[in-house]
Amino acid sequence: MKAIKNLGFAILAICSLSYCTNSSKTAEQKDSISQDSSLEVIQDKVEDTVDKQGDDPQLVYDLVESMYSGIAVMKQGSEKGTTAEIKALANKLTAEHTKLTEELQALATKKGWKLPIGESVDDKEKRMKLAEKTGSDYDKAWLSALEDRHKTNIGKLEGAKPTDPDLKVAGEKGLPKIKELLAAIQAVKKSYK
Predict the structure, then answer these.
(1) Which residue numbers delimit the DUF4142 domain (predicted)?
(2) 90, 97 Cβ separation under 8 angstroms
(3) Total domain count, the chain
(4) Domain with 179 in it
(5) What is the full per-residue pLDDT of the chain (193 aa) written as tens digits?
(6) What predicted TM-score, i.e. pTM, was given to this entire model?
(7) At what angle do helices 55-80 and 27-53 cross, to 10 degrees?
């Protein structure tokens, strides 16, 4: 009987410690989680609307959402990068992508297409995980993340068959720029191998 009582106390202590550990999140962390959940619900509703608008609005939505996240990663690189080369590349990429994003936003506004309100929750989580790295490990991971993002967006643009003439022009203008920026990322990445 005494052993069962002791086992009961042990289980109670473990559960209490587990609760204390889980409830030790700061108010800021709890607010961030709540905001992420709210953002995800809003983004899902906007995405549902975009799905109904067709392929051209969906392409713009996906590209702008990717660029929001990409710009956040680029700005992070300008802060966390360990070399002048990384920081300069981050600043260049931020400026160029901000310009491309503004052009797509203007097109979407002109056409009445819905736009994302920010980066996706998944992309934000990836960016936060990237931020945990330090030193040259961060630099290498940052370059790889941006290389992958640019390759993905190039694939989307090359595979797209827009019917809207303005979107075709924007794609023809934007694709070479994104390829140029990918080449700049890859040139810097070579020096880190």
Answers:
(1) 55-187
(2) no
(3) 1
(4) 39-190
(5) 444 444 344 333 333 333 343 444 444 444 554 555 554 544 454 444 444 457 999 999 999 999 999 999 999 999 999 999 999 999 999 999 999 999 999 999 999 999 999 999 999 999 999 999 999 999 999 999 999 999 999 999 999 999 999 999 999 999 999 999 999 999 999 988 6
(6) 0.72
(7) 150
